[in-house]
Design goal:
Elements: E1 3-11, E2 15-20, E3 25-30, E4 50-56, E5 59-65, E6 71-75, E7 83-88, E8 92-97, H1 106-118, E9 123-127, H2 135-151, E10 154-157, H3 166-173, E11 177-181, H4 188-195, H5 201-213, E12 221-224, E13 230-233, H6 255-258, H7 278-284, H8 290-308
Parallel strand pairs: 3-5, 8-9, 8-11, 9-10, 11-13
Antiparallel strand pairs: 1-2, 1-4, 2-3, 4-5, 6-7, 12-13
Helix pairs in contact: 1-8
The chain binds guanosine-5'-diphosphate and zinc ion.
Length: 309
């Protein structure tokens, strides 16, 4: 029987678009009996999955799915307690940030980083629109970079408009699958086009809107890059949320807090007003940045509020 290894780049319901190991684009269907073990998901195969295809009656069929290195999920909008896997096997995430027009809040940044930590996806902060910064913007940006670099996050500066920093970005992305995230308006489409002029994420957004009207469920799409590697785009990144987090999990995903946790007096310490709390002590000493701590509190509160419903 003829077999092929391939990667899923798009799911459109019954049919999947895939790219084979040797770069061939093809379509395949799922075998009826294919089920995922251990996760109640509404989709057995996701964008980024590495699969084995077999040729049956002239159609490629998805047989086996390789174990996932990681994956990101969202709650199923229709079925309670079920997940939808948005994408799998992500090497890294780029969070595109702009200081103004539109301003990316640190609340948004930290929520993204915490989620990515939980999914074990290394994140890089990419500050776009360097050509448009005012002196004041620069100060704000420098402060953010100082904070995030200290914690261990890499920060890169680019202008998708002038091409500043794009060469370094391409070097970084070669051979990897990169998830691209950011508010609408930060320049994701422009950025994608700057690194590979064959890419036009906007076309994807438009077709997605159209598909939504037809009740199909396309949530993520992968684009092969001409220099090797892939970009994963998820329109509506807001839905990339904290699925089933417990409030006591959050501090584990703040790297600057995680290392301190064993030093708190109480092992169920929430780091809010408990005595002998290592996190509060570090905050007091300025070793944890005020705004990061505030964002931590906001996330804990949000989880509590959700539970009250
Ligand atoms: P998306 O919603 O994230 O896909 O953002 P777009 O790529 O559509 O960009 C939003 C706006 O920002 C457009 O008007 C772009 O021309 C502009 N833009 C994107 N990147 C840059 C940049 O590096 N510098 C400047 N000055 N404008 C940019
Ligand atoms: Zn504590």
């Amino acid at each position: 029987m003829k077999k092929l290894q391939a990667k899923v780049v798009k799911s459109t319901g019954a049919w999947y678009d895939l790219i084979s190991e040797d770069g061939m684009l093809l379509k395949a269907r799922l075998k009826g009996n294919l089920r995922l073990e251990g996760l109640s998901s509404t989709n057995p195969v996701a964008v980024g999955d590495n699969v084995t295809l077999t040729l049956e009656n002239g159609d490629w069929m998805i047989g086996e799915i390789a174990d996932r290195e990681n994956y990101i999920i969202r709650k199923s909008p229709s079925r309670k307690g079920q997940y939808h896997i948005l994408a799998a096997n992500i090497d890294q995430a780029f969070l595109l940030i702009t200081i103004s027009k539109p301003r990316t809040s640190t609340g948004f940044i930290d929520r993204f980083l915490v989620t990515a930590e939980a999914y074990q996806i290394p994140s890089i902060l990419v500050f776009n629109k360097q050509d448009a910064l005012t002196e004041k913007d620069k100060i704000v940006q420098d402060n953010l970079i100082e904070t995030y670099t200290e914690i261990g996050y890499e920060c890169l500066l680019v202008s998708s408009k002038t091409g500043e920093g794009i060469k370094e970005i391409i070097e970084n992305m070669k051979g990897k699958t990169t998830l691209l995230a950011g508010h609408s308006g930060v320049g994701k489409s422009t950025f994608a086009n700057a690194i590979d002029n064959n890419l036009d994420l906007r076309t994807a957004e438009v077709s997605k809107k159209y598909e939504k009207g037809r009740h199909t469920t396309t949530f993520a799409e992968m684009f092969p890059l001409k220099f090797g590697g892939n970009i994963i785009d998820i329109p509506g990144i807001k839905e990339f949320g904290l699925v089933d987090f417990e409030e006591e999990d959050i501090s584990h995903f703040f790297p600057e807090m995680a290392s301190l946790l064993p030093e708190c007096k109480f092992n169920n310490c929430m780091h809010i007003n408990e005595p002998d709390c290592a996190v509060l002590a570090a905050l007091e000493e300025g070793k944890i940045t005020e705004f990061r701590y505030q964002n931590y509190l906001n996330m804990v509160n949000d989880i509590n509020e959700e539970k009250e419903y």
